[in-house]
């Protein structure tokens, strides 16, 4: 992972507090935090729910990064880093399942679903 330009520990602790013990394999927040993309995880969580500690920590990072331009740039980097993780779309509900396995029980709809075949390369 690229050298973080902010204090990830404070964000990690806030996320732990505001979104604890999540084992949902469709949860972007948990997946992002697990790979060290705390800023993107906190951004997603604060967009989805009330989370005072995470919002405070986000504000601190905003100041550490020196404002909106570098904050947005860092967010975008982490968003792309998350999307580069192995995942596939649930064929039943359309949620993104964060797994490298060929099959998974979707935490969103509870169904056993399979990774779609990679499309054949065109000659
Ligand atoms: Zn979660
Ligand atoms: Zn599903």
Fraction of residues in β-strands: 5-15%
Give a short account of the largest sheet. Answer: 2 strands, antiparallel
How would you name the oligomeric state of the polypeptide chains in this document? single chain
State mean pLDDT (0 to 100 scale).
94
The low-pLDDT segments are: none
Radius of gyration over all CA atoms, rounded: 16 Å
The N- to C-terminal Cα distance equals 35 Å
Number of β-strand runs:
4
Sheet/helix structural class:
mainly alpha
Number of contiguous helices: 5
Principal-axis shape equals: globular
Percent range of helical residues: 40-55%
Count of the separate structural domains: 2
Quick take:
The protein is mostly helical and about 120 residues long. It has helices spanning about 10-20, 30-35, 40-50, 50-65, 70-85; strands spanning about 90, 95, 105, 110-115. The protein contains five helices and four strands, in the order αααααββββ.
Keywords:
123 residues, 5 helices, binds zinc ion, mainly alpha
């Amino acid at each position: 992972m690229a050298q973080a330009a902010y204090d990830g520990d404070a964000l990690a602790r806030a996320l732990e507090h505001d979104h604890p013990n999540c084992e949902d394999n469709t949860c972007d927040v948990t997946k992002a935090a697990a790979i060290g993309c705390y800023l993107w995880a906190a951004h997603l969580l604060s967009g989805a729910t009330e989370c005072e500690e995470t919002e405070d920590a986000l504000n601190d990072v905003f100041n550490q990064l020196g404002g909106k331009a570098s904050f947005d740039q860092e967010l975008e980097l982490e968003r792309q880093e998350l999307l580069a993780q192995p995942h596939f779309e649930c064929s039943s509900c359309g949620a993104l399942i964060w797994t490298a396995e060929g099959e998974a029980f979707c935490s969103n709809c509870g169904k056993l679903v399979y990774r779609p075949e990679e499309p054949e390369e065109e000659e």
